[in-house]
């Protein structure tokens, strides 16, 4: 395993589809920049040329990767993102803000798809090595509410899953949070976006990510 030479902080944002991750990630980036931090933002699946190609495969409503294949493709995207973007940026002292990361795999593939959180964790321990996030903001909200926010436009392959699947995703996140209580900070994402952001900033300050 490569020695961890990180100088910057690694922040990930998690939650069910439509929880407000992208909205909050953008606010966090602006906030950190206003504090004089050098920041890069990215997302999973995606963030690299290969990752964006694989994203199309994973989210294509006509596509069919499920179960083990799906878990492995998400892990491949993660490996590429870490090697090409996240690790070099952290070593240069940038703060990295990532919209979804390993906890999505644990909740979606590990729990909701039924592969097993521990099996997905083993796979991802190999992919991530020592580059685990410093802090993860988990936006918790009833999927009946968050999916309702995604009105209009064509639903992707995961968004098209039944409400029961998304309820299992939420349940999965709660289990993952129990496994990593220090890293994962939960925020009630049913609140207005500005209040959600206020609470995120408080967590980032508590964690020493910003002064
Ligand atoms: N706290 C909030 N309350 C109500 N609506 C919100 C809130 N946060 C974001 N939204 C709105 O909900 C929609 C989805 O938000 P956003 O894209 O940030 O969610 P997401 O979690 O990134 O979604 P996805 O999982 O599909 O990528 C957007 O229209 C956004 O403006
Ligand atoms: C990283 C990751 C993502 N997913 C799922 C979760 C979402 O339904 C999509 C990504 O779409 P978004 O608009 O960017 O939220 O992919 C997953 O199942 N497993 C993962 O590891």
UniProtKB/TrEMBL annotation:
This is Thymidylate kinase. Residues 13-200 form the Thymidylate kinase-like domain. The keyword Kinase applies. Its EC number is 2.7.4.9. Signal peptide: none annotated. Belongs to the thymidylate kinase family. One of its GO terms (molecular function) is dTMP kinase activity. It catalyses: dTMP + ATP = dTDP + ADP. Keywords: ATP-binding, Kinase, Nucleotide biosynthesis, Nucleotide-binding, Transferase. SUPFAM superfamilies: P-loop containing nucleoside triphosphate hydrolases. It comes from the Bacteria. It is an enzyme of class 2 (transferase). One of its GO terms (biological process) is dTDP biosynthetic process. Coiled coil: none annotated. Phosphorylation of dTMP to form dTDP in both de novo and salvage pathways of dTTP synthesis. ATP binds at residues 15-22.
